[in-house]
């Protein structure tokens, strides 16, 4: 658990945390913010109610069997034959089997109906987002017919409220799964196969998504932020993302940019508007506008940024950013530059 931001294993911490996340909040299927999640939530309640009912019936029956008066058989004695015993046994068995089949039938029908209603919600699109899962972060693209108007960011999906969105899912290495419980169920991202998901957010807010298919060492640190805005705020966000990275505004930032462009960083990261154009690691063009770094492992701020660059392997052991070895004086300038990339 070294470097983990929150340890659920510490006594007294996990339980309230689990209780809180289960009921409402940025990552909860019981606090739906969209049509799909609302329907899946209803299905969850049907299953819970059905299973609770069966559980109560079985417990009550057990209680009845334990407390009713018994006819005791003396040692060596024989059980008195009951009139119609076999018939009652058969009838009882038939009733149990019929009850079980009926309940399962209700569950299957409800599940089918919910699934069907989800596909009905998915018949139009106004915004397309491509999400690509990689060990252990997400590339998020907004394609446009005009390539100069397409956007690439990382670990953050922005959506307009009340607008149907088609999310295309791809995987670069192993199987991942995108799960934003407040908006929809899970769907796998599979190498070599295109999957898609439709989202219909019906209220604004910031939600949390998580990779839901074990994908290696840092699977637990593969989260993303989902921000649902008003249409106007979404369009403004898009315009801001379309702009190239701002030029350095002072001497420290200029030195930081020079350091970035002459070091190993450019082998992996791109910053639009500079010669750095690699795309094997998160795009950093508007890094400072994001809420978190390293796929939700740390909240975005200058301190965490410096800590990450100084030793990414301590924060997310095994992740694919190596320790580059930046001297402390250079680190300050580098962070000043990256923090200016609003
Ligand atoms: C060998 C490729 C590679 C090199 C070289 C590299 N990085 Fe990274 N970097 C990555 C990968 C991969 C990630 C994503 C790690 C993760 O979240 O699992 C990352 C993440 C980051 C992030 C967080 C981005 C985000 O949105 O989460 C920052 C900031 C960053 N790197 C800065 C740098 C700087 C500065 C340098 C040069 C000193 C550098 N990187 C060198 C591969 C690299
Ligand atoms: Cu995973």
TrEMBL record:
Membrane-crossing residue ranges in chain numbering: 47-66, 93-114
Subcellular location: Membrane
UniProt entry tagged with the keyword Iron: yes
EC number: 7.1.1.9
Keyword Membrane annotated: yes
Segments forming domain Cytochrome c: 251-342
InterPro entries: CcO_II (IPR045187), CcO_II-like_C (IPR002429), Copper_CuA (IPR001505), Cupredoxin (IPR008972), CuRO_CcO_Caa3_II (IPR034236), Cyt_c-like_dom (IPR009056), Cyt_c-like_dom_sf (IPR036909), Cyt_c_oxidase_su2 (IPR014222)
Domain Cytochrome oxidase subunit II copper A binding: 124-240
Predominant location category: membrane
Membrane topology: Multi-pass membrane protein
Enzyme class label: translocase
Alphabetically ordered keywords of this record: Copper, Electron transport, Heme, Iron, Membrane, Metal-binding, Respiratory chain, Translocase, Transmembrane, Transmembrane helix, Transport
Catalytic activity: 4 Fe(II)-[cytochrome c] + O2 + 8 H(+)(in) = 4 Fe(III)-[cytochrome c] + 2 H2O + 4 H(+)(out)
Family: Belongs to the cytochrome c oxidase subunit 2 family.
Stated role: Subunits I and II form the functional core of the enzyme complex. Electrons originating in cytochrome c are transferred via heme a and Cu(A) to the binuclear center formed by heme a3 and Cu(B).
This protein's name: cytochrome-c oxidase
Lineage summary: Bacteria, Pseudomonadati, Pseudomonadota, Alphaproteobacteria, Rhodospirillales
């Amino acid at each position: 658990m070294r470097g983990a931001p929150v340890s659920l294993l510490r006594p007294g911490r996990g339980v309230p945390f689990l209780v809180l996340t289960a009921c409402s909040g940025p990552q909860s299927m019981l606090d739906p913010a969209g049509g799909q999640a609302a329907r899946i939530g209803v299905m969850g309640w049907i299953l819970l109610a059905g299973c609770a009912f069966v559980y109560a019936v079985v417990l009550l029956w057990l209680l009845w069997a334990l407390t009713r008066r018994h006819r005791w058989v003396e040692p060596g004695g024989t059980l008195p034959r009951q009139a119609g015993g076999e018939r009652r046994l058969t009838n009882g068995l038939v009733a149990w089997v019929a009850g079980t089949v009926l309940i399962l039938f209700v569950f299957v029908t409800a599940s089918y109906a919910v699934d069907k209603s989800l596909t009905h919600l998915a018949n139009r699109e106004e915004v397309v987002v491509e999400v690509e899962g990689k060990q252990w972060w997400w590339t998020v693209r907004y394609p446009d017919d005009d390539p100069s108007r397409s956007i690439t960011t990382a670990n953050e999906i922005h959506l307009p409220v009340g607008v149907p969105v088609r999310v295309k899912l791809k995987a670069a290495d192993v199987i991942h799964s995108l799960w934003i419980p407040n908006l929809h169920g899970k769907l796998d991202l599979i190498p070599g196969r295109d999957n898609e998901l439709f989202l219909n957010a019906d209220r604004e807010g910031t939600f949390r998504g998580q990779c839901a298919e074990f994908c290696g060492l840092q699977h637990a640190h593969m989260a993303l932020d989902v921000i649902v805005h008003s249409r106007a705020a979404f369009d403004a966000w898009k315009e801001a993302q379309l702009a190239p990275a701002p030029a350095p505004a002072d001497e420290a930032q200029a030195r930081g940019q020079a350091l970035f462009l002459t070091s190993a960083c450019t082998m992996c990261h791109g910053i639009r508007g500079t010669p750095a154009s690699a795309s094997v690691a998160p795009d950093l063009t508007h890094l400072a506008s994001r809420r978190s770094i390293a796929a939700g492992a740390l909240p975005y701020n200058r301190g965490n940024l410096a800590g990450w660059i100084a030793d990414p392997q301590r924060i997310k052991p095994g992740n694919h950013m190596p320790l580059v070895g930046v001297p402390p004086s250079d680190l300050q300038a580098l962070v000043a530059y990256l923090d200016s990339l609003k």
